[in-house]
Amino acid sequence: MPDGLVVGLLGHGTVGAGVVRLLREHADQIAVRAGVPMRLGPVAVRDLARHSGAGLPRLTDDPRAVVAAEDVDVVVEVMGGVDPARALVTSALQRGCSVVTANKALIARHGAQLRALAAASGARLEYEAAVAGGVPIIKPLRESLAGDRVRRVLGILNGTTNYILTRMSEDAGSFADALADAQRLGYAEADPSADVEGHDAAQKAAILASLAFDATVTDADVYREGITGVTTTDIAHAARMGYVVKLLAIAEQADGRVGARVHPALVPASHPLAAVRDAYNAVFVEGEAAGSLMFYGRGAGAMPTASAVVGDLVTVARALLAGEAPPKTLLRARAEPAQVPVADVATAVVQAYVLLDVADEPGVLAAVAGAFGERSVSIRSVWQEGRGETAQLLLITHATLEGDLRATLDRLRTLPTVRDVASVLRVEGGEA
Amino acid sequence: MPDGLVVGLLGHGTVGAGVVRLLREHADQIAVRAGVPMRLGPVAVRDLARHSGAGLPRLTDDPRAVVAAEDVDVVVEVMGGVDPARALVTSALQRGCSVVTANKALIARHGAQLRALAAASGARLEYEAAVAGGVPIIKPLRESLAGDRVRRVLGILNGTTNYILTRMSEDAGSFADALADAQRLGYAEADPSADVEGHDAAQKAAILASLAFDATVTDADVYREGITGVTTTDIAHAARMGYVVKLLAIAEQADGRVGARVHPALVPASHPLAAVRDAYNAVFVEGEAAGSLMFYGRGAGAMPTASAVVGDLVTVARALLAGEAPPKTLLRARAEPAQVPVADVATAVVQAYVLLDVADEPGVLAAVAGAFGERSVSIRSVWQEGRGETAQLLLITHATLEGDLRATLDRLRTLPTVRDVASVLRVEGGEA
């Protein structure tokens, strides 16, 4: 790279165009901070005609040509999706070319193999933009907290669902209304399932769990519930008790196993995560020495994501200029990620909010309490409201095993006086 | 460093002891993440007898011996204070030995010279722990946001004053009561002036301003007001209007100049900084591309600070293993920090809360409004409460120049109907 670091770009959608814009507009500052100017090399797009006016001299519709170009020092992958990104990134890393990617699906599914490939070839693989967009969380976890031990990570990692839950909470609207509002504003896709069913958050949870605990956790290992079942009644009950409802991604380590789960949860209104509104993201980290930390910001959007990509490019440039990719001993350590097993979600310690529709007759509370008692699930508080024939019974448990909670719910469903288990939400982040 | 990186320690107070504890208890994890084991070398203390039971085999009362020791790869400076830390750190850097320091006073005063020394000798100088304790903010500003442009940094950087303001706000107690409470809990010193007069926050503001804007800002350049003048009346007025009062450190760039100031300010209750309670710290960064980011956590305490120091040690170890300190071209860039001039605080754009004790008679409002009008300071809202002979008049201005605000206040003091300018606070972070 005699006259600058050459960046090959895979994809020129909104994020790719944002990267090009930052490289152009902030060129001087980037050169100072990276220690070398950055030059845009080949750019691969699907439809040449659509991007012909973007002033990209080396436009191509062959992504393999970008990865194979001899003058490319680092490949930026912002095309998204597992295939063909996986083959392209693999090919770049195999030839020792560093890669910066914003691709959460790719890293969540194949991060361990790609990290091992990078380690073997001496290339860098950076993916700050894959989790929480413009919010620095990968580097803080991997470097700033390198000397600490992370106990637990709680994240609001999906802006769409956080926007929907914020609207439901502040406007007392239904899930359907809030979703329609999010779609109107462009926060939610026409098919919103990747967001509202928690798939997107689960991918990010897998990445954070792998990093925080030096483990290999894929999105398939993450227990997942979306927010489609959350009702305005749940949100109102939660508010009355001093909680807000958030879709949380949780990564934790206990008894030598790593657990990762995504589900809606009641969070105390005084908890820093409760103040994360609208489409914002936040990651709350409990470090053994550092204590509670939180990282907050825009989790999506072209420019925040592009900012994270260019930050990674500067990191790669500095490493390349230092004459080498990461230290070999570290590479060896990285190439063999610790085989920390993944925990069954049934072993997770949870606290639950359980809303039941029950018959409004004597003995119901005794029967319900008995079902909890059979599995030694201890009840912290109970609230009952009669409605004539039926009543609503709301219970908050003390901390218990997820497995015991599920067995209790199964038992409750068999009770003749329990008409419906209307809602089950976990409670995280302490007492309200 | 054939069998490990040797760490020389200057100071073995609570932070130093925390560093030793992390190096011992997390030794395996640190070796994997750093790529090399870390070994504790010589440790300098003032009073040998006091530390003789700490199991430190190379204890000395001569800090120069630590800096001069041939086998020491990196010096950790946690003694605090400008002297003799400055001479010791200078001496280490001059001989090419990397330094990790938690010393905010030293970096705020002499950071530019020390960074230049490191650049010249190829050593690393890391100081994550100097600002906001265990919260990663230096590395995110320097690396993750390297491709972005920072517009403004708003920080709650002093835990003691944030604790005092939280108590005044939530318990409606006086400053004196809240200070006594903070002293009882060990959050405030017997002589609390470094905290309550804003000196500590000003040092951290200088460091953040220098980093965010590639400038040379020392603590002497920071405009500073403490919280001793904040009253329960101010806090109650602020709350009624939807604001909380915080001691803010502000670094901003406008018209090619960098400004840094520390003063109490009204922050909208909906702003993420408003939710930062008790002794917590937070840094809110407005990036051009990344948007609003916030970093939150424990700003002080032995273990959070030690966690940041050990994170820096891992960074240094990886750089040393990569065969070199930072790239030479970058070093050259760093050795000559951009000569961005420091702005006069009179040119800062501020919004103000002004509380006046006035005579309760006709024409007062017209006279007061006239004083604001003379300097074209526009008034956003006015609130008046009669108390018999006198009245309280509360005004919130629109955005104006600090210089015009001051001239207006001087003019108000000359008006016969204005008995007292009781309080002047800035308003930051938008409308409530």
Q: What would the keywords be for this entry?
A:
homodimer, alpha/beta, eleven-stranded mixed sheet
What is the gist of this entry?
2 copies of one chain form a homodimer. Chain A contains 15 helices and 17 strands.
Overview of this structure, please?
Two copies of one chain form a homodimer. With 432 residues, the first copy, chain A, is an alpha/beta fold. Helix content of chain A is 38%, strand content 26%. The first copy, chain A, is built from 15 helices and 17 strands. In chain A, strands 7, 8, 9, 10, 11, 12, 13, 14, 15, 16 and 17 form an eleven-stranded mixed β-sheet that branches. In chain A, a hairpin with a 2-residue loop joins strand 9 and strand 10. The longest helix of chain A is centred in the C-terminal third of the chain and has 20 residues, at 302-321. Chain A starts with a strand and ends in a 5-residue tail after the last strand. At the A-B interface, helix 1, helix 2, helix 6, strand 12 and helix 12 of A face helix 1, helix 2, helix 6, strand 12 and helix 12 of B.
Low-pLDDT parts of chain A are 325-337
Helix segment count of chain A?
Answer: 15
Class from secondary-structure proportions of chain A: alpha/beta
The proportion of strand residues of chain A reads: 25-35%
Globular, elongated, flat, extended or rod-shaped: what is the shape of chain A?
Answer: elongated
Largest sheet of chain A: 11 strands, mixed
Helix content of chain A: 25-40%
Total number of beta strands of chain A: 17
Distance between the termini of chain A: 56 Å
Question: Average pLDDT across residues of chain A?
Answer: 91
Oligomer: homodimer
Largest interface: A-B, 70 and 71 residues
- What's the alpha carbon Rg of chain A, rounded to whole Å? 24 Å
